Amino acid sequence: MNTMTLGHLSLAQFAALALAAFLVGFSKTAVSGANTVSLAIFAAILPARASTGVLLPILIAGDVLAVLTYRRHAHWPTLWRLFPAVAAGVVLGTVFLMWADDGIMRISIGAILLMMAAVTVRRRRAAEREAEPDEVTTRSGRLKARSYGVLGGFTTMVANAGGPVMSLYLLSAGFRKLGFLGTSAFFFLIVNVSKVPFSVGLGLIDGHSLLIDAALVLFVLPGALVGRWAVDRINQRLFEHLVIAATVLGGLQLLLG
Description:
Layout: H1 11-29, H2 35-45, H3 48-70, H4 76-99, H5 102-126, H6 139-159, H7 162-172, H8 177-201, H9 207-216, H10 220-231, H11 236-256
Helix pairs in contact: 1-2, 1-3, 1-10, 2-3, 2-11, 3-8, 3-9, 3-10, 4-6, 4-8, 5-6, 5-7, 5-11, 6-7, 7-11
């Protein structure tokens, strides 16, 4: 795998990666989608393809903390409806990774994120949603779940960028803060763990990447604690705006990077 070892990182590079790991923890317990900033930092310091393998275990650590924090608030009917489509997206993403270079990867995912942000803003302005996310039981809700599921699986496999896609789906489905965080916590723990064999098979995770992870994973916990403290102090409208803003920022970073 085209990557650098822990010993090759300068102090400034390691500090930037530690900040990115902190932001992963924060995003998992507060503003989902904010870890697109972490994605950009990892891709800027490490080779883009290799960075996805290094980042994945960090994300899983954040997912575990998020599940422990919000496990009572998950909406399982939504999760069961999403998983088959996500599995298809992960397979498509794996095939895509076999031939796509870094440039194509960034442009494709950046465009998808910006498109999803625009769709979500339009839908949120068109009508107020009910507090309970029951629209997944309708025909249009099922179609939307499948569409977002495939996109989420594809983007999470290709660049660990599925967070913004699924965040936009959960917002458009009318989830409130705690339901949003609990559902996304279980979703990403299951999906990210399922990606590990694919990433190992593609050579994205190896001994060198795990050594870097071992040094960075300690920074995820304080980020998660800060996120849990902050989420109770963020109202619903600001929460939604932050999620969408983080998605747009991540999409632009991918397109312009």
